[in-house]
Amino acid sequence: MTATLTSGFSGEIIDINGISGDDDDRLTVTFAALANSTRRAILAHLAQGAATVNELAEPFDMKLPAVSKHLKVLERAGLIVRGQHAQFRPCALDAAPIAQIADWTEQYRPMWEARFDRMDDYLTRLQHHTEHRPEEADNNDD
Amino acid sequence: MTDTNTTDSDSTKSVVIERTFDAPMPLVWAMWTDADHFAAWYGPTGARIPVAKMDVTVGGKRHVCMEMDTPNGAMQMWFVGEYLEVSPHTRLVYTESMSNADGDVMTAGDMEMPEGMPTTTKVIVELTDRNSKTAMVMTHVGVPADSPGAQGWNMALDKLTAHITDAA
Q1: Paired residues of B61 in beta bridges
Q2: Is the pLDDT of residue B159 over 80?
Q3: SS3 of A126, please?
Q4: How far is residue B78's CA from residue B98's CA, in Å, rounded to a whole number?
Q5: Which of A1, A2, A7, A10 to mutate to test the interface with B (most CBs of B within 10 A)?
């Protein structure tokens, strides 16, 4: 459904979000992966160091296949990397996508810069107007 | 990029923008607090602000609608918020959340976005007189730590940012 949101948006709307298409998709996958308390707990565990599926399953009342499902989501989102040892396939955190999210407020900057450009223009017009049409000055009183 | 600061009180980053306008402080203040003035600059090009209700008092509510034409027809985005600090002509602090037309805060799930996507932000506007011009510092805090909708999100970030900081 996010695709509808994004594709229905003209360039201007994407400008509102301040997020370009590619970044948006990547953020969507990352946010979706993080939108689950079990997966966040798994990541918190991995923040302490790499672990096997068995170790990760331990704190949860959950069968291994269920944990594996969560790990697949995290792996697709690029949040974890898994070793190649067939038996254990230890998991480790990959912080890069999260670092990108941690920086997401920066996406707002171009939106605000554009707004303040418009505020500047508007203030100029408004004051220019007021000089030439003094009767309008009254309307600006608080 | 150098003026993007990380505030001490929040674990999330803020966007900080400084501008000087060739206008007196009361007029720049009115840009934020007078609905007609606000509507004149706030929306992106091609967007309209058909609704901007502002009760600019501490605890007062704001309700803003942004409307734009898309190939699928007009699309509206609604925002609600509350004024936290109102010091006329010098300092304004308000929250902003995505909402519906009735002013009910929408969660990320309601908006068909992934849960955990932050939906509440805080805007801080500070004005200073500079020889009859006005210096403005706008701080946009991504996710206020105290916003109810942000708790799950903050929990995730709090635990993970430490790791990222170590890894960086």
Answers
A1: B82
A2: no
A3: helix
A4: 6
A5: A10
Q: Which helix (H) or strand (E) is B166 found in, with range? A: helix B151-167
> For residue A86, what pLDDT is reported?
60
Using a CB–CB cutoff of 8 Å, tell me whether A142 touches chain B. yes
What the block records as the tokens of A79 is 């949040």
Q: Are A122 and B41 in contact (CB under 8 A)?
A: yes
Taking the Cβ of residue A93 and every Cβ of chain B, the question of whether any pair is shorter than 8 Å is answered with: yes
- Give chain B positions within 8 Å (CB) of A102: 12-13, 157, 161, 164
A53, A67 contact by CB (below 8 A): yes
Could you give the CA distance from residue A21 to residue B82 in angstroms, rounded to a whole number? 31
Token pair recorded at residue A108: 């707002």
Interchain contact, A47 vs B160, CB within 8 Å: yes
Q: Whole-structure pTM over 0.90, yes or no? A: no
Helix, strand, coil shares of chain A, percent, nearest 5, are: 70, 5, 25
How large is the C-alpha radius of gyration of chain A?
Answer: 24
Tell me the one-letter amino acid at B135: A
User: Which residues, other chains included, contact B48 with Cβ-Cβ below 8 Å and sequence gap of 6+?
Assistant: B39, B66, B67, B68
Q: What domains appear along chain B, each with residue ranges and CATH number?
A: 14-167 (3.30.530.20)
Please write the tens of the pLDDT for every residue from B120-146: 788 999 999 999 999 999 998 865 444
A43-84: per-residue pLDDT in tens?
A: 888 877 888 888 888 888 888 888 889 999 999 888 898 887
Sequence-separated (6 or more) residues with CB below 8 Å from residue B38: B31, B32, B49, B52, B54, B64
Mutation for B interface: A7, A31, A113, A120, most B CBs within 10 A? A31
ipTM exceeding 0.85, yes/no = no
The amino acid at residue B35 is A
Mean pLDDT, residues A121-127: 94
* Of B1, B148, B118, B63, the residue nearest A17 (C-alpha): B118
